[in-house]
Design goal:
The complex is a heterodimer.
Chain A (H helix, E strand, L loop, with lengths): L2 E6 L7 H14 L4 E5 L7 H5 L9 H5 L5 H4 L1 E2 L6 E4 L12 H14 L2 E5 L6 H8 L3 E6 L3 H17 L1 H4 L5 E9 L1 H5 L6 H8 L3 E6 L2 H9 L10 H13 L13 H8 L3
Parallel strand pairs in A: 1-5, 1-6, 2-4, 2-5, 6-7, 7-8
Antiparallel strand pairs in A: 3-4
Chain B lengths: L15 E4 L5 H14 L1 H4 L3 E5 L12 H10 L3 E6 L6 H5 L4 E3 L42 E3 L8 E4 L4 E3 L8 E4 L3 E7 L2 E4 L9 E6 L3 E4 L2 E4 H4 L8 E6 L2 E6 L1
Parallel strand pairs in B: 1-2, 2-3, 3-4, 5-7, 6-8, 7-9, 8-10, 9-11, 10-12
Antiparallel strand pairs in B: 11-14, 12-13, 14-15
Helix pairs in contact in B: 1-3
The chains are: A alpha/beta, B alpha/beta.
């Protein structure tokens, strides 16, 4: 049985798809058979981030409507053989996602994959609810600002009331992934700190992804940023994947680096 | 300016009405005691208006002074008579109680069945009360929430206390007919005594609420920021004013 991970946030633009792509890639590169599903029907993005947009023939909705088989719709990643992508349909809307249809697809994928990463759309409506309903593990992507934190809190409430596990009285494993973190701006009070966000959301911290130009560059190139192990974001995503797999490693890139501190002192 | 000793005001007072149908001095006393026994807390020291509106017996048997004494013996506090024929008014005033005019045909009173009379005792008196309260101890288990209450969630403990072991987030709402306890930060809304219990309280480890309310009286965060903000505190209602106190 595959483990189903939902990457969700409530708020849009916080880095759900970027995180889904990097975490899926990180799991697959460690040998786990992994599939990333784009639940953002109508606003397909994952294929761009993964750099496979030209290879989309059939999509998630085609499979739900049994217009195509899973094997026809799944796209194999060119870099990592254990990674597949199930793209969203661009021409449909979220109403095309039925609970039975989604369950069918997930059941089929469960037989061959170790991890199913569900990239949730923004919002708390049907698309987001379908993405989180079957999840075993939730990764809540949050930016260090108040509106993102509040939306994450809201989505945690929905995970606790409207997911399959909640209905069965079971608990979903919840993880906080703090993205676009900038220690300098935290220091001058322009951004919430890791501790502030942890205090409000009260769930374990999976990782802190520092704000980095590498993320935008990677998106535009269609290469998940985790492949860029020179960048701080790439390293931070790799750490997050290791923690997800049970390793206990310290958080990096949370504090202002000493070099920067002295640079600031001498006004450089 | 002269100090004012008093002010006269009109007011509506709730009282129990003893609707007298017939009167027999002996059976009245025993029947009344039986009835009081059924709900002592309701009748004890309660203000009672003795209504003659529906009296259908013989006036000859009524000694109003005895009637009032019998009521007092049963634990009631008669405050006035209501209705009855005009010629009775002087007799009524001799008891020292007030006389109120009849309120007209008010037949919407809920009538209480008299207890089944035993065959050998002739039923002569029926008392009618406006409100029937059944006395019983109701105890509902408190509702306990072990996980954080998230934005958009709402929990209500009916007829009971609500206990939250961790935080109540901004945009979340917790309500109880009794007390609300939050053993974490209270950042959302907490309402205690939502059905009017003014003795209910809101307790929390850190007061950062958007709104707190007891018995319908509420206070918003702007005001709360000036009192015990982010401190362990409780909210209570004293003289219809919310009081925030440090624990």
């Amino acid at each position: 049985m595959a483990k189903i991970i939902v990457v969700t946030s409530g708020k849009g633009g916080v880095g759900k798809t970027t995180s889904s792509a990097s975490i899926g890639t990180g799991l697959a590169s460690r040998g786990f058979k992994t599939v990333i599903i784009d639940f953002d029907v109508g606003l397909r993005n994952l294929d761009l981030i993964m750099g496979c947009e030209r290879r989309v023939v059939y999509d998630f909705v085609n499979v739900i409507n049994t217009e195509a088989s899973l094997n026809q719709a799944l796209i194999r990643d060119k870099r990592i053989p254990t990674l597949s992508i199930l793209p969203a349909s661009q021409t449909r809307d979220k109403e095309a996602l039925t609970r039975e249809g989604v369950q069918n697809v997930l059941d089929q994928l469960s037989k061959t994959f170790d991890y199913i990463v569900c990239d949730s759309p923004a919002g708390i409506e049907r698309g987001a609810q379908m993405a989180l309903y079957f999840a075993d593990i939730a990764i809540v992507v949050t930016n260090p600002e108040v509106s993102s934190v509040r939306d994450s809190d809201r989505i945690l409430g929905i995970l606790q009331s409207k997911s399959r596990r909640a209905e069965k009285g079971e608990i979903i494993e919840e993880h906080l992934l703090l993205t676009r973190y900038n220690p300098q701006r935290v220091a001058i009070g322009e951004m919430l700190s890791v501790e502030d966000v942890k205090d409000i959301l009260a769930i374990p911290l999976l990782g802190v992804i520092p704000e980095s130009e590498a993320v935008l560059k990677a998106s535009n190139q269609g290469t998940p940023v985790i492949h860029d192990q020179e960048s701080t974001s790439g390293m931070a995503y790799d750490d997050a994947v290791r923690r997800l797999l049970g390793e206990d490693i310290p958080h990096r890139f949370v504090d202002i680096t000493r070099k920067n501190f002295f640079k600031r002192l001498i006004g450089a | 300016m002269n100090a004012v000793n008093f002010q006269l005001k009109g007011s509506v007072v709730t009282a129990i009405v003893l609707e007298l149908y017939q009167y027999d001095p002996e059976t009245f006393a025993t029947d009344l005691k039986d009835r009081v026994q059924q709900a002592p807390a309701l009748f004890e020291h309660s203000a009672v208006v003795i209504s003659m509106d529906k009296f259908d017996g013989s006036y000859d048997l009524i000694n109003f002074i005895t009637l009032v004494k019998q009521c007092r013996d049963a634990g009631m506090q008669p405050i006035a008579f209501r209705g009855g024929e005009k010629h009775l008014q002087s007799a009524i005033r001799s008891t020292g109680l007030a006389w109120l005019p009849s309120t007209g045909a008010r037949n919407n009173d809920r009538e209480l069945e008299a207890p089944a009379a035993t065959p050998e005792v002739e039923k002569v008196v029926e008392t009618v009360v406006e409100k029937v309260v059944e006395e019983k101890v109701v105890h509902r288990a408190s509702k306990v929430l072990t996980r954080p209450v998230r934005s958009g969630q709402q929990f209500y403990a009916q007829d009971a206390d609500l206990i939250v072991l961790t935080n109540v987030a901004e945009g979340a709402e917790v309500l109880a007919d009794g007390h609300v306890h939050v053993y974490g930060a209270l950042r959302g809304r907490a309402l205690a005594g939502v059905r009017g219990d003014k003795s209910a309280r809101v307790f929390c480890q850190s007061l950062e609420a958007e709104l707190v309310s007891v018995g319908g009286v509420f206070m918003l965060s702007d005001e709360l920021r000036e009192r015990c903000w982010k401190q362990p505190s409780y909210v209570s209602l004293d003289d219809d004013q919310l009081t925030i106190s440090k624990i």
